[in-house]
Structure formats: C-alpha cells, structure tokens
Amino acid sequence: MRSFVSVIVFCASFELAAAQDNIREVDFKNFSYPISGPLLGHSELKWLGDPKDGYSKRKPIHLVNGEDLKKESSFEMDGREYAQYSGFSLQSVEFADLTADGKEDAIVVLLYQTGGTQNTHYVYIYSFIAGKPSLLAYCHTRGRADFGLYKVYGERGKLVFELLDPEKNSGDCCSSGFVRLRYRWHDGRFEGFGAHEHGTFNAKEP
Predict the structure, then answer these.
(1) 149-155, strands of its sheet edge to edge
(2) For 14-29, how does the pLDDT look when each residue is reduced to its tens digit (9 = 90+)?
(3) Structural contact between residues 198 and 181, judged by C-beta atoms closer than 8 angstroms
(4) In the chain, domain spans
(5) Is-contact 48 54, C-beta < 8 A?
(6) CB neighbours of 96 closer than 8 A, spacing ≥ 6?
(7) Beta strand pairing status for 80-96 and 158-164?
(8) Beta carbons of 113 and 90 less than 8 angstroms apart
(9) Residue whose C-alpha is closest to residue 70's, from 39, 43, 49, 37
(10) For residue 192, is pLDDT > 90?
(11) With 60 as the cut, is the pLDDT of residue 42 above it?
C-alpha cells in the first residue's frame, strides 16, 4: 500500500516540479534521488555518477514526506514503542549560486542510517533548467567523526564542505574540530582547489 501511495506522491511531485518558477519552489521532501555504489565503508568524500568509477547504479531513493525508511527493530517501554530504522531521510536544503550563472542552486543533504550506530551523508546539487530541477552532481562523505559531514554550504560562488576531523575526535561519534574543503564548478563538474583548512568548534556550536 505504501509503495502505491509513494507512486502517486512522486507522480504529483514531478508534475509540480515541472511547473515551478525557481529552485526554491521544488519539493525536495517528496523527490527521487539517484544513488550508486556501496552505502557504507567510504574512505573519502567521493563524487558519484561517473561511469568510470565502476559503481553500479542502485534503485533510486524515493522520499515521501522527507523519508525513505524501513523499521529494523522495536521494543516497548512504559507503554511506548521505540524503533530503529534504516534508510534515507532529508537533513537540509540550502540555496546558493554555485555555477556563476546568477541563479540559485540547491544543496540537498540526505542522511543514510543503518538502524545501528553507522551512518553517512549524501549531498546532491541541483540547478534549475527549463522549468525543472536538474542534477549537477552528487557525492557521499565518510561517516561520523571520521570525516563525516558537519556542514555544507555555498560561499562566494564556491561549494564548501566542513568535515569532522578524526584527529580531534572524542569517540567514534564526535569531534572538536573540522576540516574545510572547497570546490568550484568547472567543465561540468566540481573540482577541489586550495589547501584544506583546519578549525575548532567554538562553545556555541554543537
């Protein structure tokens, strides 16, 4: 029944997306995202979708109300059910001009969780072309304190990642510092440039 409802939602969402005026009007909570390669065990921030990387394509991620999750286990305590889920959920959507065309692009972050302690992030960059969203590129990061994603944003036409620094970790989940990487759009792809920057979170940051 859920799959049937999902089909209806996505058919409606794509029809609406085609009628939007700009990238901010796209409903990324009810949207389909491509994915390829292994879901975990990543050794680096890696851009995906290039046939040369040898990764096979997976079944697309279909978010409905921001989620594509499967219940893995559950237990009851004090009359309440507590469940663990695996799959994808929408974490954030930010907007910035990343291609120097004077128009905003969308930076969409999805979290993949296993139902246990492992997780990783996938970042999708969409432009708005011919009245609908068009995927420019997507990538995954590593997991948790081992170069897991802390922030991703646009800054002066560039795409910036802040990843948790494993050299300043306080366990598998947390780190007191970050490594900043910068990318620019060139010849149809995002290219890294400049030296990596290291920083420490201040007291106001999580």
Answers:
(1) 149-155, 158-164, 177-186, 189-200
(2) 444 446 889 999 999 9
(3) no
(4) 2-70+81-200
(5) no
(6) 104, 105, 107, 153, 154, 155, 159
(7) unpaired
(8) no
(9) 39
(10) yes
(11) yes
